[in-house]
Design goal:
The chain has helices at residues 14-24, 32-36, 51-58, 88-95, 132-144, 158-175; strands at 8-9, 27-28, 41-44, 66-69, 101-104, 117-118, 121-122, 124-129, 148-151. The strands form three sheets. It has a five-stranded mixed β-sheet with strand order 3-4-5-8-9, sandwiched between helices. α3 (51-58) links the parallel β3 (41-44) and β4. The protein is α/β, with parallel strands linked by helices.
Length: 190
């Protein structure tokens, strides 16, 4: 892949996995377990309502790996978050108690993943988690894709990131925008 990563993709509908792989150069996995087999980082890009089932399916296969939760737990009308706890990422962490979970990518619209710069400004990729080494790994991944990684804190801050995503999605839906809006933290940060 363009950033030098080997990527495997699986989907409930194999045709979707094949189409995604054809567009991105990823390997089509036979199933979810095959997709995570050789991975160092497992990115869950599934509907919010499917996260816990997928986590339960992969629980033993993701030990020793970093799990990145990029889901946004939206309700059916895209008007609010549908969560049971402080954040969906914390629910995922409860289902994977022995695996570091990092919330990341969820504030980046899919249309921006290959376009991390706007008007000369590198877009911000926020991430949150409780495991320092896992967060370092995710930060390096975000940077390798051209984003400016910003550590938002512990996994408790995933709620703020999920709310930021809801705001961006709501604006695009409500304003009829082209799904190209993005976050960039500006000003002195050092």
């Amino acid at each position: 892949m363009a950033a030098g990563h080997s990527v495997s993709v699986s989907a409930t509908d194999r045709r979707k996995a094949v189409a995604s792989a054809a567009q991105t150069g990823a390997r089509v996995a036979e199933n979810n377990l095959d997709a995570v087999g050789e991975a160092d980082i497992v990115v869950l890009a599934v509907p919010g309502s499917a996260v816990t089932a997928v986590a339960d399916e992969l629980a033993s296969a993701v030990r020793g790996k970093v799990v990145v939760d990029l889901t946004n737990p939206l309700n059916a009308t895209l008007t609010d978050l549908d969560i049971e706890e402080t954040s969906a990422a914390q629910t995922l962490q409860r289902h994977l108690p022995d695996v570091p979970v990092v919330k990341a990518f969820n504030t980046i619209l899919a249309a921006r993943l290959n376009n991390p710069v706007e008007q000369g400004i590198t877009l911000t990729a926020f991430y949150a988690g409780d495991d320092t080494e896992a967060k370092k790994t995710v930060s390096e991944l975000l940077a390798s894709l051209g984003f400016r990684p910003i550590d938002a804190g512990g996994l408790r801050m995933a709620r703020a990131l999920e709310e930021m995503a809801l705001l961006n999605i709501s604006l695009n839906v409500g304003q009829g925008w082209s799904w190209q809006s993005a976050w960039a933290l500006l000003g002195p940060t050092g």
